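Appendix B, example 12.
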Amino acid sequence: MTPEPTAAARASSATAVAANTPANDDPKGKTLDAATVTLIALDGKAIRVDGNGVSVDGNKATITAAGVYSIRGSLADGQIVVDTKDAEKVVLVLEGADIAYATGAPIYVANAEKVVLTLAEGTQNTVTDGAKYDFPDSKTDEPNAAIFSKDDLTINGAGALTVVANYNNGIASKDDLKITGGVITVRAANDGIKGRDSLVIRDGAITVNAGSDGLQSNNDEEADQGYIVIEGGTLDITAGKDAIQAETNLTISGGQITLRAGGGSGVRKTAESAKGLKAGVDITIAGGVFKIDASDDAINANGKITISGGELVLATSDDGVHANVAFTISGGDLRITRSYEGIESNQITINDGKIRLVSSDDGINGTSATATGRGGMPGRGGPGGFEAGDSRLFINGGYVAVDALGDGLDINGAVEMTGGIVLVNGPTANNNGALDHVSFKITGGFLAAAGSAGMAQAPGTSSTQYSLMHNFSTVQAAGTLVHIATSDGKELVTFAPTKTYQSFVISSPELQNGATYVVYSGGRSTGIATDSLYAGGKYTAGAQVASYTLTSVVTGAGMGGPRGGVRPVRP
């Protein structure tokens, strides 16, 4: 039964109107008074109005003046339209509204200074459109969303909203779209939630299932528009294409974010873009908890990607993180559980934070702007390799654990390491190496890398910290300990590679010129292994296989003799 239009009905909107604070909707103009609320009562196919600013024509209610409008009841096939030239905002308070319209947008903002859609606490609201819209002519293609605004739109409140968009998009604004609260569920044939100029999410529980992009800002005409900002809330996005896509910049500082794009990492990548986070310029992540499962790159930017905080778990059939220009991590916890290549960019800088990654090809891939690889495509490693390029890897701190079937660290240029911990479980095939670089200068930090021996490399002679490489005479089984100690038995490293290996490289501040180090294979340790590296405990010796006295900054023996410095380009 539709509520009668009474003064009590107007007063019940007071709490919802109070939610329209500057923090929630950036109001322009005077503060609106709940006492002047106009009630729009929906009753099947009829619309009744108590108050001013609304004209009714059959199944359509048109709001023509700024003010607060409480919408209640059910409309089987009709439309709420906002069309006002007032330089003030319109507040639509949904208080248990169920609006369906078979041939157009059930809620359509044709013209307004600003519209706020407030979801009254304790209410469930539903907006549903049909599979085909009626337009006046072939040139008209808007509105094209179940909730569509030509102007700024804010959604707030503590109630619930379900949008079922059978025709095209779920919620869309051609200007700025802001969400600061509410429990919002969108099922859309095309894109889920769109703000053409910008999309800002500050809070709320948002669930989207979209045939195309989940969240999108797509202004490609103005450099300072087309951005997405996520500051908090809970987001659960399932998208046929990109889960979150910004034409320019994507900035995330908080929130619980779960993304599934293109069917997930178990689906082979197609020509369609199906990325988790995607930006045409830069991506900045300062916080938040992420779980991303994508058939395409989990995180991708045409410019730079910067991570300074947050917890990220990524799975993808392509790259875990791909930035065309630069990737920098200065904090946070990044875990890539499945990828083709883990991290790929022209310049990679690791200042702090934790990185753990698993890749079926290269773990960390520094691609040159001029390099070409498999299929002639930039940014791909694999057989055939790259020409020496201008990419860079800077490791100044942090913790990095790589488990790669291709090269562990594949930098088509220079590596500089001044600090941090880097652990590499590298390839088993001899046409790849745990370390693959043009030059590698290490002045600090701890490096341990195990892999195949055919193209094994150590850091270069420009280093100031000592390195030791040992190539075993035969391939060692996965899990076989490699233990290196001083001549008097002090442990330097105990490492249990996850795959078969024949080469092991270590660089540590503890390596000293003139000291002698003994290499053991096998044995046991009572210590605790993390990412193959043992800490604490007691080592029971296996077989001694080599002994080295350091006489230069890079020392090694075995297959191919001493190695280090610049490696020749692959044929």
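The helical segments are 7-11, 14-18, 22-25. Residues 7-11 form the longest helix (5 residues).
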